[in-house]
Every structure is written in structure tokens, then in C-alpha cells.
From TrEMBL:
Cellular localisation: Secreted
Coiled coil region boundaries: none
Keyword Hydrolase: yes
Name of the molecule in the record: Beta-mannosidase A
Enzyme class: hydrolase
Keyword Zinc set for record: no
Organism in which the protein naturally occurs: Trichoderma ghanense
Beta-mannosidase-like galactose-binding domain: residues covered: 38-228
Domain Mannosidase Ig/CBM-like as annotated: residue spans: 767-847
Subunit relationships: Homodimer.
Domain Beta-mannosidase Ig-fold residue range list: 875-953
Superkingdom, natural source: Eukaryota
Pathway stated in the Swiss-Prot or TrEMBL entry: Glycan metabolism; N-glycan degradation
């Protein structure tokens, strides 16, 4: 689909949660701005409401009842019940908020120390975006980047302030400002095709979350406000310091970004603290590293060496024996061993620290490898070209996961409960990696903390996507501040997997730019290299030895890396040899006639985006849409489909309808089409049918990519588009806005089991192959049972001529074919419309886990229909559902026929997911299914609202 890309969602209460990284601050006095009283006033002075800090104007206006996301009018009782939701067409109706400035004003701030020996600083961890900061009626700064930390010395202003000072922050209307920048003669103008607007135009000029201006899966609210915590810091000039940011780099001695480190080399821990205050010359640094779960277990304690200091930064390092620390591993590959590190800075000869900073780190190396395929790799059967994969602690592994988009259009209401629920759903899908896609925000530390603990690698990107960006000196300087701050802030997290400069430049925007204007292309390419390679890579290399860098997320790898070159990474671009394989794939095909044709899928080293949109469930639609709008073709439902994007600020029914049509055609092509008399039931069935298509299509692609791990392309990762939703709408998401699972997560969970058996059907020739694929790090063996039955559940004679069971042996991260047949000529299926192949795998092998060397049994279930589901002669399976209070499990039984896509639904009011869903049941087969409850507001009553149905029920009333 080109230029579109995404994030995630959970339903939350309006309360904001901001968890700042804790800093020891000696005796510095900290006044949290969240504890002051605030008002928010619009530009015309005719709206004033109480404000929070951190917050955004939309949230405070909502809390005050000025705007409502509720189902009906403000006077209606339901307002209170419906909490924070994106109602109806608020995406369009609330544009008046983004069209004006909003000012956050504090009450006079009391309790500040005005002594001459005190210095006073304003410190903001994030202001969104164009702000005029006034303290005691004087402008102290005009920050202009959402992603930076801003701090100001207000000592003399406070001293001369006649009363308790007022702090006010005037946030400019971002659309108005970027339109004005764009209208100026001084700025560069690109062809429209490379600065395409989703909704609000001109986002390339502002360092603000790019999906705030619309995306093909989200709304365009362009919110403003103090979105991160802030504080007033007071320091005694006698030597107190305040720590602004801390970079900890843990790497193997001799390691350099993008190159495989020596796994036997000792570890180096480098600590670098940014501060305000005056640090005496010849300061000393010491460090204490302990087990994060047991402070008595000390890994290292002592002085740091090579201490170097400047006005704002002090740095030192220590070497630790190679074997001493226990390694951190991603989940399923070993333990998530973490260590707490506390760095103290003291004046010479003093033991009393002036500055103390603590972080939690892991000892691991993570390489993003995208250099040339070596001769040794070619000798092992890998096609020449470039690598494109990750290595943890020196081991290649298969990356399984999805792309994370912002969980909400309003970050201050994203709670740690929501994110923890989201990570539950990540682990439950058997993922080991998420891609933090590049046009939301840099995630706060507390989300990386969750990932560190759970062992989920976060492929992280700088926040640039799907447009060309300027490289004027001002813009570059602003970006350099942003990158430096975030690289230093996040470097210590064990889950940080890589940095990439942005999304879809080399595979999409540069080729579009070249096509649009070949004459200016060399200049445009030069700008790209200046900003995304020279500027950014030099900053990474100066601040981190441990993290690899790639200038963008979809490309053909690099040919040369050398900091002394004018452009320190020489990208391969399209300098390719036919028949060789380079880089990753970013693949969308909305022609559903080939959705299950594997010959139409791309062959690459890694699939970082692929997918198709589906509708959320009726339960999720009901959160956001009035009852009369609950139909597939209501204006509200259509306009919430942003695939395809409006391309401007008007309501573009035409473009939105194209997406609805794609889903409709997909269902009509392959699935029984719902035609129920009850309109809401019919809408619900249609929504579900779009999810069946989505899940089957992703399964087909994931199986294809995983099989590639053992083929000459040596394919080593697949991350589907997109994990989560930012609101309630038709999108590529697996998880709906409040975290409810679509069909896809259940199917991706199965397809990302370690050892899987998959059917590959060439439906034109009617060839069928079955392959076993494993991502274990050692060979595994087992059996696959293959059982042909008709749709009444009766065995097909002689198992249709297929062996009932096949033994297999599969290599480490490899694949093996166990069946190759032709359904028409080799098999004897009396009626292909009345047949299904049940595939059950059992394998024995070892988890890639150094601390668990036990032989583990792995199982996987799958099925294959020799026709499309809408041709299958499905009968009513007469499903029975019961719930056992003591085991807390549901039992589902098919009593009269094979149940395809057996589907348990939980009611609204409970959040969580079933152990299994969308499975096949044969008559007489009873399946016990548990449910992981994440949040229950029904007092347990939800179990009575659980229902079960299957493909049979899609069309029957
Ligand atoms: C506030 O003033 C503006 C400009 O005069 C006007 O357009 C708007 O309707 C007013 N809003 C309210 C709530 O009075
Ligand atoms: C709105 O904000 C912009 C950017 O900070 C500022 O330049 C402008 O003066 C503000 N206008 C008003 C009326 O507050
Ligand atoms: C390690 O640090 C974390 C905060 O990052 C803290 O919650 C934890 O208690 C510390 N562990 C020990 C054993 O003190
Ligand atoms: C990678 O291969 C290209 C040819 O495709 C070659 O020009 C380049 O020098 C190679 N790089 C390295 C580091 O070997």
C-alpha cells in the first residue's frame, strides 16, 4: 500500500500516568509541576477549564465537559458511563481545537527558595510542540520539538519576581504554524507526491508525532499540551547538581555498531551523566552494579576510569570480566537477567556524592546485520546479496512479532495497566520482537522497562516517515538535539534492538522522488544522506557502541561503513545483481484474487510489514458509534476507514469506501457472505468475516516467510502490520482499541509456535505440500498426524491415500518438506467440498535456552481445506458450551458435524483472551478453553455472556 504505517491501542481511563525515571538528586529541591494547579485557556479567552500536567488540551476539555466523546449529548446521563472514547466523527468535528492556541497557566507557585545562593531551573521532559514558556511574565524559551527535553535557568527571573511566580505555556496551533512555514518563500518545495497529506498537510516541517496529522489507520487531532512531566529544580550553588539524562552503554570490548562483537571479550560499562549545576574540576565517579532482584548480590563495585567532564556531562567507564555477568536474553531464549547500576559523582577527595543516577541494564549484545552475504554463507547454500537479520549474544534467531503504533491519539492517558495488558497479548502471540514504528513517538522509559522484564526486543526508529524532510541548518540542529537526547535516554535498555532512521525512505520515498523529478533527485538524495546517515549515524556512534543503525527500515542493506567516509554508511540502494537477494520486504497487495497465492509473495531476508485491513468487532464499534450507525455502509463507519486516506481535510467518502470495498470483495471471494435479517447481527457477522479473511491471509504469509528460514533466502523474521489500534476503526490491527483480540492474534499465536506444520496449496495446479518449520536452535524430531475427514466428521476412506502419520527431522532454524502431492491426481477425495485435513504435530527438542536444557515437547495444530471456505459443504455442528466454575474453563463440543473456525466471544466488560480460538472441532471432540482475565468490571458475570459459534453461523440467522 505504499505510504502508510501504524501503531496500537487499549481502552483507558482518563487518568494520566507518567512514570518518570527516578533520579537521585542530592539535596536539590524538586517541585513537580503535576502538583501545581493549572488552567487551560483558548486563544480568544472565551474557554477556560482546569488543566492537568502532563496533559493535552483535548483531554482537559473533555474532562471539563466542553467536548464529549460520549454516545449522545452532554446532558445525557450516559456521558459519565462512557468515559474517554473517540465518538463518531469527532476526528472531523473537533478540528476547531487544533485551529487555535491553548495556554496552560499555573496558579502562583509558592514555596520556592529565593536565596541568592540558589539556582532555579525549569525542566520539561516533553512539550507538544510549539510553545512559548513564560515565567514571572518573562519569556524564557520557545521550544519547538515534541521529542526533546527542554530546560531553562530562571534563577535571576525568580530573584526579581515581585510575588510568587506564575508559569504559563502557550501552545501554538500546529496546523497554522506549519502551513505558514510551508507558505514561506524561503523553504524548499518538493513534488506533492513526496509530501502527501493524510489529513493535515505540511507535517514535514514540525518535529511532532507524525500520525497526529492523520494516517491510514488513525484520526488527525493534532493535540497540544505539556504531554510529559515537568518540574522546577532548585540547587544550592554550593555544589548541588541535578541529573537531566543518563546514558549507560554496555558492550563487548572492541565492539563497534553494526559489526558482530567478539563474544569472549570482556564487557565495558560506560556511564555518561548529563546535569545542570556546577561540577568541581577533577570529579571522580564510582559505580555499584547489583542483581536487580537482590541488592546484596553485587556484580561490581568500584571507581570508574577515564573520567572526562564538561560543563554539562561527566563520563567514565569500567571493564568487567567476560564471564561474570549473566546474560539477558529475549523471552523463550533464556532468562531476562537484569542488573541495577548506580553511578555516583563526587568532588575530588570527597566520599559524599554530588550526583547519583540509577538505571537497570542487561548484559547482552544485539546486532542488526545487514552487510554483504559472506562466502561462507554462500557455501552453506544462502543466495548472495545482503544479510538482513538480528543476532542476540552472537546467535541468529527468527524474529516473530508485529508493528507497534501509538496506543492512543492522546499519550497522557496511556497507563501502565494498558501497556502491560498489551504486552500480555504480545507474549501470548509467541512474539519476541515489536517494531516501534517511526511516526508515533519515542516510547517513554517505562514501556522499555516492561519490554526489558518480559524479554520483548524493541526494534526502535527515529520518528520520521513517508515524506521527504528538510536538512536546513536549523532543522538539522533541532533533529540532532532530539536524536542525542533519545539515544542517550534509551541506550541502557536491554530490549533496545536497533535504531533505524525512519520508515520507507529507500524503498518508497526516494524512488518516488526520483520518478517525480529526476533532475533534482541527486540533491534530494544528498539531503537524505546528510540527515539520515551523516548526522544521525555520527550521533549514534558517539553515544553508543552497542546498538546498530540503519538509516531506514526497508532497504537493501549497506556496502561500506566507515566513519571517515564523507557519508559514513554507503547504502546499497538499487546497486543490485539480478538473482541475488537483498534486504527486507514491506508488502501489501489489495488485489484479493492473489491473497493466498504464495508465488505473489515477496522473497526477502525479513518481512517487516505485510497485511490487510479488517473491521473491529461489534463490541468495539459500540464503544464509538451510535446504535443507528452500526452498519457496514453507514457514513460514520465508512468515514472511520482511513484506508485510503482522505488526502486532505475534507470528508473523503470516496477514498474511505475503497477500503470497505476491498474488505467486502475479500469476504465474497472466499467466505460465506452474511445476509442476516437482523441488521446488527448482520453487521456483526460481516465484521467477523473480514477478520477471518485477515487471519487466514496473515497465516498464509507468516507460514511462507517462516519456511524461508530454511530456503536459500534464509528469511529470518516476520513482523505483521499492525499489532494494535489507536482508535475504533477498520485497520490492519490484530488487537482492537481496548485490547480485544480479533481472529488474527489467535492464528498468529499458533503460527508462531516454535515447530509448526503448514500446508502450501497451489490451487491452480491443485498441488499440496506440507512443510515442518522450526525456529529452535538445535534440530528437533517428531511426527505429524494427517487425518482426512468429511465435514460430518467421518474418516475419508484410506485417508484419501495420504499417510496418516509422517515422521520428521528438522534442523535448527530450518524447514523440511514432509508431503508433496497432487490433490486431483494423487489423492482420492470423494468430494473436495466435503473434506478437511486435520494436521497435528508433536515434536521433541530443546528450547534455545541455556538455563533450560530439558527436552521439551512441542505441539501444533493446523488444518487444510481443499476448497475455499465458501465452497465447503458445512453443516450445523450443533455446538455445546459449558463452563466449569472450579477449573474456570469453558468446554466446547461439536455434536453433529465438523465445526470450522469455532469462535468464542466474550462480552464487553471483561478484557482478556481465550487460550485458543478459531479452531477446528470434530464431532464428539470436547475442547477445554481457559480465559486470561486482564480486567473484569462485571464481578465475574461475564462468563454467562460468553457465546460460541462457527463458520456455519456466519450466514444463518
Ligand atoms: C470564542 O470566540 C471565537 C472568536 O470570536 C468564536 O468564534 C467562538 O465561537 C467563541 N467560542 C465560544 C465558546 O464562545
Ligand atoms: C500562538 O502560538 C505561536 C507559537 O508559539 C505564537 O507565535 C503566537 O504568538 C501565539 N498566538 C497567540 C495569539 O497566542
Ligand atoms: C532495581 O531498580 C529498580 C528501579 O529501576 C527497583 O524497582 C528495584 O527495587 C531495584 N532492585 C533492588 C534489588 O533494589
Ligand atoms: C559488498 O559488496 C559490494 C558489491 O556488491 C562491494 O562493492 C563492497 O565492497 C562489499 N563490501 C564489503 C565490506 O565487503
Amino acid at each position: 500500500m505504499g505510504r502508510i504505517r501504524p501503531l496500537l491501542a487499549a481502552l483507558g481511563i482518563c487518568a494520566s500516568v507518567a512514570v518518570a525515571t527516578t533520579e537521585h538528586v542530592g539535596k536539590a529541591a524538586i517541585h513537580d509541576l503535576g502538583l501545581q494547579e493549572w488552567t487551560v485557556t483558548n486563544e480568544y479567552g472565551n474557554i477556560t477549564v482546569p488543566g492537568k500536567f502532563p496533559s493535552q488540551a483535548h483531554l482537559d476539555l473533555h474532562a471539563a465537559g466542553v467536548i464529549s466523546e460520549s454516545l449522545t449529548t452532554q446532558s445525557d446521563q450516559r456521558v459519565k458511563l462512557t468515559r474517554c472514547r473517540y465518538h463518531g466523527l469527532n476526528d472531523f468535528d473537533l478540528r476547531w481545537i487544533a485551529a487555535q492556541n491553548w495556554t496552560y497557566t499555573s496558579k502562583p507557585i509558592s514555596g520556592l527558595n529565593k536565596h541568592a545562593d540558589t539556582s532555579t531551573w525549569l525542566v520539561f521532559d516533553g512539550l507538544d510542540t510549539y510553545a512559548t514558556v513564560k515565567f514571572c511574565d518573562h519569556i524564557v524559551g520557545t521550544p519547538d520539538n515534541q521529542f526533546r527535553q527542554w530546560f531553562y535557568d530562571v534563577s535571576s527571573l525568580l530573584a526579581s519576581c515581585k510575588s510568587d511566580p506564575v508559569l504559563s505555556i502557550n501552545f501554538g496551533s500546529v496546523p497554522r504554524i506549519i502551513n505558514a512555514i510551508n507558505a514561506s518563500d524561503d523553504v524548499q518545495h518538493w513534488p506533492a507526491s513526496v509530501v502527501y497529506p493524510f489529513e493535515y498537510p505540511n507535517r514535514q516541517w514540525v518535529r511532532k508525532e507524525q500520525n497526529d496529522f492523520g494516517w491510514d489507520w488513525g484520526p488527525a487531532f493534532s493535540p497540544v499540551g505539556p504531554w510529559q512531566p515537568g518540574r522546577i529544580v532548585q540547587l544550592s550553588k554550593g555544589g548541588e547538581l541535578y541529573s537531566l539524562n543518563t546514558a549507560i552503554d554496555v558492550f563487548r570490548k572492541g565492539q563497534f555498531n553494526n559489526f558482530a562483537p567478539d563474544q569472549t571479550a570482556p564487557w565495558v560499562v560506560n556511564a555518561s551523566l548529563d546535569f545542570v549545576g556546577t561540577l568541581p574540576k577533577h570529579a571522580s565517579m564510582s559505580v555499584l552494579i547489583t542483581d536487580a532482584k537482590d541488592s546484596r548480590s553485587v556484580l561490581y563495585s568500584g571507581k570508574l576510569e577515564g573520567v572526562a567532564q564538561s560543563d554539562m556531562t561527566v563520563t567514565g567507564s569500567v571493564t568487567i570480566d567476560a564471564e561474570k555477568p549473566k546474560l539477558w536474553w529475549p523471552r523463550d531464549m533464556g532468562d531476562q537477567q537484569l542488573y541495577n547500576i548506580t553511578v555516583s559523582v563526587s568532588s575530588p577527595g570527597s566520599e559524599t556524592p554530588l550526583l547519583v543516577s540509577s538505571r537497570r541494564v542487561g548484559f547482552r549484545t544485539i546486532l542488526f546485520s545487514s552487510g554483504n552475504i559472506t562466502d561462507a554463507q554462500i557455501a552453506s547454500g544462502i543466495t548472495p546479496g545482503n544479510n538482513w537479520h538480528f543476532e542476540i549474544n552472537g546467535h541468529e534467531f527468527y524474529a516473530k512479532g508485529a508493528n507497534l503504533i501509538p496506543p492512543d491519539a492522546f499519550w497522557p492517558r496511556v497507563t501502565s495497566d494498558r501497556m502491560n495488558r498489551l504486552f500480555d497479548s504480545v507474549e501470548a502471540q509467541n512474539f519476541n520482537m515489536l517494531r516501534v514504528w517511526s511516526s508515533g513517538t519515542y516510547l517513554p522509559d517505562w514501556i522499555y522497562d516492561i519490554a526489558d522484564e518480559r524479554g520483548v526486543l524493541l526494534w526502535s526508529e527515529f520518528q520520521f516517515s513517508d515524506t521527504l524532510y528538510p536538512d536546513s541548518p536549523d532543522f538539522k540542529e533541532n533533529v540532532a538535539g532530539e536524536i542525542t537526547y533519545n539515544v542517550r535516554r534509551l541506550n541502557h535498555h536491554a530490549s533496545l534492538a536497533c535504531w533505524m532512521g525512519g520508515n520507507e525512505f529507500e524503498n518508497l520515498m526516494l524512488p518516488i522522488a526520483q520518478g517525480a523529478d529526476p533532475e533534482t533527485y541527486p540533491y534530494v538524495l544528498g539531503q537524505y544522506e546528510d540527515l539520515f546517515i551523516k548526522t544521525m549515524f555520527n550521533i549514534i556512534a558517539a553515544n553508543s557502541h552497542s546498538i546498530s543503525y540503519s538509516p531506514c527500515s526497508a532497504n537493501n542493506g549497506w556496502m561500506e561503513i566507515d566513519l571517515d567516509l564523507p557519508v559514513p554508511i554507503v547504502e546499497r540502494y538499487y546497486n543490485t545483481t539480478s538473482g541475488h537477494i537483498y534486504g527486507d520486504t514491506d508488502f501489501y497487495n489489495y488485489d484479493t484474487s492473489v491473497s493466498f497465492d504464495t508465488s505473489a509473495y515477496p522473497v526477502g531476508r525479513f518481512a517487516n510489514e505485510f497485511g490487510f485491513i479488517s473491521m473491529p468487532s461489534i463490541q468495539t464499534w459500540q464503544q464509538a458509534v451510535d446504535p443507528e450507525d452500526l452498519s457496514f455502509n453507514s457514513t460514520t463507519v465508512i468515514l472511520r476507514n482511513h484506508h485510503y486516506p482522505a488526502g486532505g481535510l475534507t470528508r473523503n467518502i470516496h477514498n474511505s469506501t475503497l477500503g470497505q470495498v476491498e474488505m467486502t470483495l475479500a469476504v465474497e471471494r472466499y467466505y460465506p457472505t452474511p445476509d442476516k435479517t437482523d441488521p446488527v447481527a448482520n453487521f456483526s457477522s460481516w465484521c467477523h468475516a473480514t477478520q477471518l479473511f485477515q487471519a487466514d491471509m496473515y497465516k498464509s504469509e507468516i507460514q511462507f516467510y517462516r519456511r524461508g528460514s530454511g530456503l536459500p533466502e534464509r528469511q529470518l523474521g516476520s513482523l505483521y502490520w499492525q499489532l494494535n489500534d489507536i482508535w475504533q476503526a477498520p485497520t490492519w490491527a490484530g488487537l482492537e482499541y481496548d485490547g480485544r483480540w480479533k481472529v488474527l492474534p489467535y492464528v498468529s499465536r499458533r503460527t508462531y509456535e516454535h515447530v509448526i506444520a503448514s500446508a502450501f496449496w497451489n490451487y491452480t495446479a491443485n498441488d499440496l505440500e506440507i512443510w515442518v518449520t522450526s525456529d529452535l536452535w538445535e534440530p528437533a524430531s517428531g511426527q505429524v498426524s494427517l487425518t482426512w475427514v468429511d465435514l460430518k466428521g467421518e474418516p475419508i476412506e484410506n485417508n484419501a491415500g495420504m499417510p496418516k502419520s509422517v515422521d520428521f527431522h528438522v534442523g535448527a532454524i530450518n524447514t523440511t518438506q514432509i508431503i508433496s502431492t497432487n490433490i486431483s491426481s494423487d489423492l482420492k477425495i470423494p468430494d473436495p467440498q466435503d473434506a478437511v485435513l486435520i494436521i497435528q504435530l508433536t515434536a521433541k527438542g530443546k528450547l534455545p535456552n541455556a538455563s533450560n536444557r530439558k527436552i521439551t515437547t512441542f505441539t501444533h495444530h493446523n488444518h487444510f481445506l481443499p476448497v475455499w471456505p465458501n465452497q465447503a459443504k458445512v453443516t450445523d455442528p450443533k455446538l455445546k458450551l459449558s463452563y466449569n466454575k472450579s477449573t474456570e474453563k469453558f468446554t466446547v463440543e461439536a455434536t453433529a458435524g465438523v465445526s470450522l473456525y469455532t469462535w468464542l466471544t466474550h462480552p464487553a466488560g471483561v478484557l482478556g483472551f481465550f487460550d485458543d480460538n478459531a479452531f477446528v472441532l470434530r464431532p464428539g471432540e470436547k475442547k477445554e478453553v481457559g480465559f486470561t482475565v486482564q480486567e473484569d468490571t462485571t464481578g465475574g458475570k461475564w462468563v454467562e455472556g460468553v457465546t460460541v459459534d462457527s463458520l456455519w453461523d456466519l450466514t444463518t440467522t
